[in-house]
Design brief:
- This protein starts with a helix and ends with a helix.
- It contains nine helices and no strands.
- The protein has one domain.
- The protein is mainly alpha-helical.
- The radius of gyration is 19 Å and the shape is globular.
């Protein structure tokens, strides 16, 4: 398969986030129950894909390199390393620029709605970052498989495209509700998917000679940890803050179910 076709297939997989992103164009800003469910859905998507796909890939790659006992140990260390990394980044951001840690000042009560919006925006941007990092090695893997064989590449592309749709929702909805800007939410979400194409390009130009199972395994483990942390620290508390506890939980379960089905379809 030629380079152009390989890049085209990789781009198609990444651009599928736009389908999920389009929900931001139709969501109603006043529907807080929908927002709580959407944030729960986002958390469900990220937790399930982290534990059922990314951590499993990390373990498999590292077990292939180091054997069962140490391979699993290194996957666990990579996972918690990702958690500690994003926690440290969260802690080191100054309070004035970190809406998640925004204090009240001058003895006045905080503007609750403003604070929620800033936290939502942060949640959406962190989710976009986590998914972009997740999509980077995914794009590289798609590109390499496409170069090797169309028969291998096309099922991978379809599977990635299907599970990128809920990932697009995960990014777009919080940003849209935080900013009120539907097109900004759409484009930021779409850009997180385009990280797959960036992964293919950088992988082809720079990283391809150095990539091995060990590096892939560590990277997948770190990304899994980052996505779980963001779900627990950002998305679920944001869903709870809107007062629709069960809507958030139902969204969480729905997000897990959608990701489970999308992964099962192409086992």
């Amino acid at each position: 398969m030629n380079l152009g076709t390989a890049f085209l297939l990789t781009a198609a997989a990444g651009l599928s986030t736009g389908i999920g992103s389009a929900i931001a164009l139709f969501a109603k800003k006043t529907n807080k129950k929908f927002l709580a469910a959407s944030l729960g859905f986002s958390a469900g998507v990220m937790i399930y894909v982290s534990m059922a796909e990314l951590f499993v890939r990390s373990r498999d790659f590292l077990v292939a390199s180091f054997g069962n006992k140490f391979g699993l140990l290194y996957a666990i260390l990579a996972f918690f390393g990702g958690i500690f990394l994003i926690a440290a980044i969260d802690k080191l951001i100054p309070e004035k620029s970190n809406p998640h840690e925004m204090p009240c000042t001058d003895g006045k009560e905080c503007d609750t709605e403003h604070r929620r919006n800033k936290q939502l925006l942060r949640s959406g941007l962190l989710t976009a970052l986590a998914i972009a990092v997740h999509n980077f090695p995914e794009g590289l893997a798609t590109f390499v498989s496409a170069l090797q064989s169309p028969g291998i590449a096309i099922p991978i592309v379809v599977a990635i495209a299907i599970h990128n749709i809920p990932e697009g929702i995960s990014v777009a909805v919080p940003i849209m509700f935080a900013t009120g800007n539907r097109f900004k939410a759409f484009w930021l979400s779409l850009l997180s998917g385009l990280a797959e194409l960036l992964g293919a390009a950088i992988g082809y130009l720079i990283l391809l000679p150095f990539l091995n199972d060990t590096l892939f395994g560590i990277l997948y483990g770190i990304v899994a940890g980052i996505m779980v942390y963001i779900s627990i620290d950002e998305l679920l508390p944001s869903a709870e803050a809107y007062g629709y506890h069960h809507a958030g939980i139902y969204g969480l379960i729905a997000g897990m179910a959608v990701m489970a089905v999308s992964l099962w379809l192409f086992v």
